[in-house]
Design goal:
Strand content: 35-45%
Structural class: mainly beta
Distance between the termini: 21 Å
Oligomer: single chain
Length: 204
């Protein structure tokens, strides 16, 4: 696991972590959004802003002409109430991982995020992670400069998801699991938990 892996905790929205979304990319993307209060997000936003600023400074150093046109892209977006339009006091982070990566030499390889329960036991696609589920997300920040938009920013590359409190997709009720105990996969498994999954067992 890369040394610059970071972890955020919050509320999951629009999770597609078992079957890649092919709407905008034929090769597929695994995606999940995470919402959390501004105050809780601030420390991570500051770290990510530092990464973006470093990329910005690097680009200006290479080409001073960019100083008057290049801007920075915020790493999160404010969340507004759909009915009233009021600011909810939360921000949203968007995570993505390409299902298939095409290398410069023409070869490809496939990848997918690890998805585990509160005890770090791997979950299967039968687990429907609905909006409102409490999760932890491990990700790799990857800075970039986009010439077309003249923006420097950071992509949040999805690596792993830990489901702490499950709200099943299609179920309007809250999780049937006690939040204090955390969500545990219903099926007993002897599968060894990967040591590369950057979550502590029951760490929530």
């Amino acid at each position: 696991m890369a040394k610059n892996i970071m972890v955020l905790s919050g509320t999951a929205m629009w999770a597609k972590v078992f079957e890649p979304d092919t709407k905008f990319n034929p090769d597929g993307d695994y995606t999940i959004n995470l919402q959390m209060p501004v105050a809780e997000a601030t420390p991570m936003c500051e770290k990510l802003d530092e990464i973006v600023q470093a990329k910005f400074d690097e680009a200006i150093e290479k080409d001073p002409r960019l100083k008057n046109t290049l801007t920075t892209q915020c790493c999160s977006n404010p969340v507004y109430d759909r009915d009233t339009g009021d600011d909810t006091g939360n921000v949203e982070f968007k995570f993505k991982l390409k299902a298939k990566v095409r290398k410069r030499d023409g070869t490809t390889y496939e990848q997918q995020p690890a998805v585990v329960d509160s005890k770090r036991v791997p979950l299967t696609k039968e687990t429907l992670i609905g909006n409102g589920s409490k999760v932890k997300i491990a990700f790799e920040p990857v800075s970039y400069v986009m010439p077309s938009t003249k923006k420097a920013g950071v992509s949040l590359r999805l690596k792993a998801v830990q489901v702490i409190d499950l709200v099943e997709y299609g179920n309007s009720a809250t999780s049937v699991f006690d939040e204090e105990d955390g969500y545990v996969a219903p099926a007993t498994t002897t599968e060894t938990v990967s040591e590369e999954i950057p979550f502590d067992e029951g760490d929530f």
